[in-house]
Structures are given as structure tokens and as C-alpha cells.
Design brief:
This protein is of the alpha+beta class and about 210 residues long. It has one domain: Aminopeptidase, CATH 3.40.630.30. An 8-stranded mixed sheet has the order 1-2-3-4-5-6-8-7, with helices on both faces. β1 and β2 form a beta hairpin. It is globular and about 40 Å long. The N and C termini lie far apart (about 50 Å).
């Protein structure tokens, strides 16, 4: 029996790679994160942005350490970090990344996303997720994209649900964050078979804005 058209077997024939890339949208541009972005990012951080983050960024030194960790993970091929550039002003307004890149299993996660408060409730986050999901499914050919957040982070969970990701459950006592706080983590995902519907939903939302 021919297996040429079996979608599960075909997934195994295309190697997942995530080289540095710039993703261009209408309102934002996602560029590879570099240490040179540290001063501009430090200018927009404030502790309240990181209430549910694993760490708090509040100074240039914090941002430099954060970028150094991200670049080290990129060197190992497990993360691909981006700076979020607001195209209208040409200034950085946050950061996001692919992480936990699993070449063998054709999966990755979108996370470590944080944004300056002045772009909250704008199209920025939706467009970032659209660009990242589109590249993951259509160029990298992944079969699953995972997103997760602190169980108590109502705003983040609502944002993830608005893009069309499906709730999978709570991983209890998942990690220690911010010096020893116990975090339960809410998991969401989008699969390649769901991407056409999610893509149409996101494009409709962006057109409406």
C-alpha cells in the first residue's frame, strides 16, 4: 500500500529548521534579537509587565542578561528570539521568541512575549502571533505550536484564546519562578490541521482593526 499521501509520514520527510529571519507585518517587524537592542528595550520595561513572567526585568542590566540567555539558547538551536519593532516609530516595543524547538518531533513553542504597555490592546500582539504562526506552519512545516502561561494570568490566557489556540489543561506545580514562587501552567496549542481555520480567523481580526 502506498504511503506517499499519508500526512503523518510526510511530516517526517521535511526537516524542521529555524534560521534567523525577519518577519514583516503591517504594524510590526520581528527582527532577530541582538544585544544592541538592550538600551531601547530597557527604556520600555517596568516591573508590572512581568508579574507572571519567570523573571522580572527592571533595568538595563536585567535586559542584557535576558538577551544574553536568549542568544545562548539560539546558539544551541533550541530558541529563536525576536525584538518587536513598531514600524510607525521604528522603535522596539517588546520581545518574543520561538523556544523549545524540537526538530525530531516537529514542534516548537511561542513564548517569552512581553510588550510595552502603550501597545497593549492594539494590533501588535495579534499581528506578532499571526506572523510567528504563519512562518512556523508554512515555512518551518511544524505540526504543533505550543503556548503556555501562568494559570493566574487571566489577561494572557484570554489573549491566547482569542488567537484560536485550544486549551489543553493545567500542569500543576510546573516550575519555580521569581525566586521561588510555585507556578501552575496553563497549556494551549495549535496543530497544523487547525492552522487554515486559525489563519482565517486571525486575518479577519487584523482586517477588522
Amino acid at each position: 500500500m502506498s504511503t506517499e499521501n499519508d500526512p503523518i509520514l510526510r511530516r517526517e520527510t521535511i526537516p524542521l529548521i529555524a534560521p534567523p529571519v525577519t518577519l514583516e507585518g503591517v504594524a510590526v517587524r520581528l527582527e532577530p534579537l541582538a544585544m544592541s537592542h538592550a538600551p531601547a528595550l530597557a527604556a520600555v520595561v517596568e516591573p508590572s509587565l512581568f508579574e507572571f513572567f519567570p523573571m522580572v526585568l527592571s533595568s538595563l542590566q536585567d535586559v542584557e542578561a535576558y538577551i544574553a540567555e536568549a542568544l545562548e539558547a539560539a546558539e544551541r538551536g533550541v530558541d529563536r528570539p525576536f525584538v518587536i519593532i513598531e514600524k510607525q516609530t521604528g522603535t522596539p516595543v517588546g520581545s518574543t521568541r520561538y523556544l523549545d524547538i524540537q526538530r525530531k518531533h516537529r514542534t516548537l513553542e511561542i513564548g517569552h512575549t512581553w510588550l510595552a504597555k502603550r501597545v497593549w490592546r492594539s494590533r501588535v500582539n495579534t499581528e506578532c502571533k499571526y506572523l510567528l504562526l504563519r512562518h512556523a506552519f508554512e515555512e518551518l512545516k511544524v505540526m504543533r505550536v505550543q503556548l503556555k502561561t501562568d494559570r493566574r494570568n487571566v489577561r494572557s490566557r484570554a489573549a491566547i484564546e482569542r488567537i484560536g489556540a485550544r486549551f489543553e489543561g493545567i500542569l500543576r506545580h510546573h516550575m519555580l519562578v521569581r525566586g521561588g514562587v510555585v507556578r501552575d501552567t496553563a497549556y494551549y496549542s495549535v496543530m497544523d490541521t487547525e492552522w487554515p481555520e486559525v489563519k482565517a480567523h486571525l486575518e479577519s481580526k487584523l482586517a477588522g482593526r
